[in-house]
Amino acid sequence: VEAHKGFFGDDSGLNGVKLFCDPAGTPSSSVGPRGSWLPLQTCPQRQPLVAFRLRVEPPRGVWDDVAASNLDAMCGDGTMLLGQGTLAGTWGNWSQPCPTSWGVCGIRTLLEPPQRAGDDTSLNDLQLFCCLM
After folding, report:
1. Domain holding 57: CATH number?
2. How many domains does the chain have?
């Protein structure tokens, strides 16, 4: 996440999402060049990630656009992992949860590359994919 840069700064909000899968590794999709990784959040032991929602700011015309700014996630036991991104925009609906005995196993993001001139937004959409656990 890139922190708010003030009135004259070009904010890009959420720049990437990374999944930490035990023991499968750390898949991520495209990641923008700005911001820094926030502290790792995990589901309780043996609980898969099963749903998410994004906080998104709609296009603002001549004003600074951010697009996705935050992410909340839900674990199989109902534990909520609350995002620590910015407050730009509004929360969308929760994704359809993975079916029982399934969990998130893949990720795909829509990322705007850095703009030479103009307004950077970075992460614009996210899809998580479910697999039988």
Report:
1. 2.100.10.20
2. 1
* Amino acid of residue 10: D
Tell me the pLDDT tens digit for each residue of 52-88: 999 988 776 667 678 788 999 999 999 999 999 888 8
Q: Look up the domain containing 101 and give its range.
A: 49-132
Q: Is there a domain that residue 25 lies in? A: no
Quick one: which of 96, 105, 94 has its CA closest to 132?
A: 105
Q: Which residue has the tokens 């893949």?
A: 106
Model confidence pLDDT, tens digit, residues 86-104: 888 899 999 999 999 999 9
Which H or E run contains 28?
Answer: none
Q: Which amino acid is at 72?
A: D
Taking the C-alpha atoms of residue 33 and residue 66, their distance in angstroms, rounded to an integer, is: 14
Give the pTM. Answer: 0.82
